[in-house]
Amino acid sequence: MKLIEKTPALGGILNPFRRLVKDSKKITFVGSAGFCLPFAELLSYVIAKEKKDIAFVPNLDYEKAKKIVFTPYGMQLSDYADPKADTVVVLGGLAMPNIGVNADDMRKLIDRITDGNGLKIGVCFMRIFERSGWLEKIDFDYVINSNIENELWEK
What we know:
globular, alpha/beta
């Protein structure tokens, strides 16, 4: 993959995502229920006014897909949903070694969601897709990677 853009802060994740999915009609996120769901909700928020169908698949559990909808509290899970979509967004938490998701199983799920013919976007932190070997096994169209730098300050 080649670098096409480098931007700082949270907008560096949200703005490219909005551009990448501008033509998508239905988007399904796949990620860990605890760690990845808030990021799916955040990414969904920037496209909430565009009236796209959005779903979230926890882990690799296709049958447990739920809608992500706009509420007075922001984007939240709602009713069960058909996860079939023209765009799939794989969140990097599933590529972390302690989660134990196999890249080949993820690729099969992506094909099931998109019928083998959709936009594949990876969103991760700290180059986890590269470090876990997923870039060689999953043919992402785009990967949004964010490097986190933390600071702890004391009085």
